[in-house]
Amino acid sequence: MERPSASRRLPAVIYVLALGTFLMGTTEFVVAGLLPEIADDLRVSVARAGLAITVFAVGMIIGAPLMSMLTLRLPAHMTLMPALGVFAAGHVIAAVGDGFGLLLAARFLTALATGAFWAVANVVATRAAGPAASSRAVGVVGSGAMLANVVGVPLGAFAGQLMDWRGPFWILAVLAVAAVALIARRVPHEPRGGQTVWIRSELSALRSGRLWLVLAACAATSAGVLGTYTYIAPLLTDRAGIAAGLVPLVLVGFGAGALAGFLVGGRLGDVRPYATTIKAAASAAVVLAALGLLSGFAAPTVALVALLGLVGFLGTPVLIALGVRFAGRAPTLGSALTVSAFNLGTAAGSWIAGLALDPPFHTAGPAVIGTAMAAVALIPTLTLALVQGRRAQPAAG
Fold first, then answer.
1. Which of 35, 148, 280, 360 is 20–30 Å from 274 (CA)?
2. What is the signed CA dihedral for 155, 156, 160, 164, rounded to 10 degrees?
3. Half-sphere CA count of 111, side-chain side, radius 13 A
4. Tens digit of pLDDT for each residue in 221-234?
5. Separation CA 147–CA 80 (nearest Å)
6. Rounded distance between C-alpha atoms, residue 336 and residue 68, angstroms
């Protein structure tokens, strides 16, 4: 049954958490705008440099459920603050390192911390907002990461071109340390739940078939959209003929679209969650197909990249909120698993998209493969809608 939206103002803590996800989102995707510089400096191919995104996604896959379970009995702020500290340390290691292997290790460490932060932040947000505004609250928290694509990622790309690719890593480390103090002041110093939380109780969420459908939709959507986005820079420069100096501006368009998609999707998700996820998956597949076909033309490509950000993230806050809901008594694990699923999709999608850079598709290959992966998301979203419809019929009768 689809829920009415709430128009009341969201608690301030949700916006504080969004500041944290801004830093997390910036570090996850800034590499996409720095791939040529990283590859040249560390003497690896662009496709190999893309592993810096893949490894980060793998770290998120492991880190979100593992770290959230290990810190299950700690107050939320005692998970969020150390996570930011580890996040800062990972960026310092990346900035001072001189080998590609060390960069990958630092990215993995940073991702572990990011996964823990994001999983707990989603639970804090949904509880603070209440059931009627849970999708909107998750949308605002996640909008920090989307805002990163509008501001953080392009600025990082500019900084990487003006200095070198290590500069953005130093900046993120400093900002993370500053964010620790803000989290300490604003996030409530109270246990995550009102009763003792047991790991066995959290693991009971794994018996929910609806949760697994949500996770499948998360992975497929992310694989199509972010697998393509990983290699957007070579598509823009080599195929669309856009100057390298203009690539950050195109990334702003993608980020603006993603920010709008996250916020709009959060509001739609509190009214029509299942319809929103279906339309988002179908729209992403259509836009990716158009991008693959029209990427030889600069103007349509720029417009489609921005549109991809919009439709690619329209269903994300809805899926996260549904994951928390369908996990029942295990909201922390439900949130963590949605984070893992999105990043599993990113890891698989970026790896497969890297292989698609070879002939016959070359730089258009990621968009071609992304179309198929995004279309797969229609299977779990349609199934979930049917399951919910059948469950609602007896209640209506």
1. 148
2. 130
3. 27
4. 999 998 898 888 88
5. 20
6. 7
